[in-house]
Design a protein that fits this description.
Blueprint: H1 3-25, H2 30-46, H3 53-72, H4 78-119, H5 121-129, H6 147-157
Helix pairs in contact: 1-2, 1-6, 2-4, 3-4, 4-6
């Protein structure tokens, strides 16, 4: 079996797990962002398509700095920033703008859906109570938004454009 194919599967598994953790707990564990970063050299070295390594590091740095600014203004959580930067490492500068635009659009749709669901929160809470399930924080009136879902969805949408997946 192709090692790069296995790397793709592991990458997607890490992304989906981070999305689920954010959706369920409103928290993306640091270990998942670190795992995504540590998996990058495996994919990079295992690919036979030359892409500038520096492009990927710059992409990571740009997103990390921008994310830290968003964190400072309490727009994004720390886990979201780390997850977003770890995924930007994979995009490189060529795919980064597409990733950011897709992430922004998906995030906007996600917020609209959450706002609509919050209007139905009392009914949802009543149904969940029958199964002893507590209403998730993101459905509560002043709850946060699990942006990790949008971040992960965006990388999965641009997944095939990641430079070294080809060839």
């Amino acid at each position: 079996m192709d090692p790069l194919f296995i790397t793709k599967i592991v990458f997607v598994a890490f992304v989906v797990l981070a999305m689920l953790m954010d959706l369920i707990q409103m928290r993306i564990p640091n270990i998942l962002s670190l795992a995504v970063i540590l998996l990058f050299p495996v994919a990079y070295l295992g690919s036979n398509m030359p892409t500038p390594f520096l492009d990927h590091l710059i992409s990571f740095g740009i997103v990390l700095v921008a994310g830290l600014l968003l964190f400072a203004f309490r727009i994004l959580g720390g886990g979201d920033v780390k997850f977003m930067a770890s995924l930007a490492l994979w995009t490189g500068l060529g795919v980064l703008p597409i990733f950011v635009v897709v992430m922004t659009l998906v995030g906007g749709v996600q917020v609209l859906l959450i706002l609509m669901l919050r209007k139905a929160a009392p009914q949802i809470e009543y149904l969940l109570a029958k199964f002893n399930i507590i209403l998730p924080e993101w459905l509560q009136r002043n709850g946060g938004v699990p942006y990790g879902v949008s971040i992960g969805t965006a990388i999965l949408i641009v997944f095939d454009q990641i430079p070294f997946w080809g060839a």
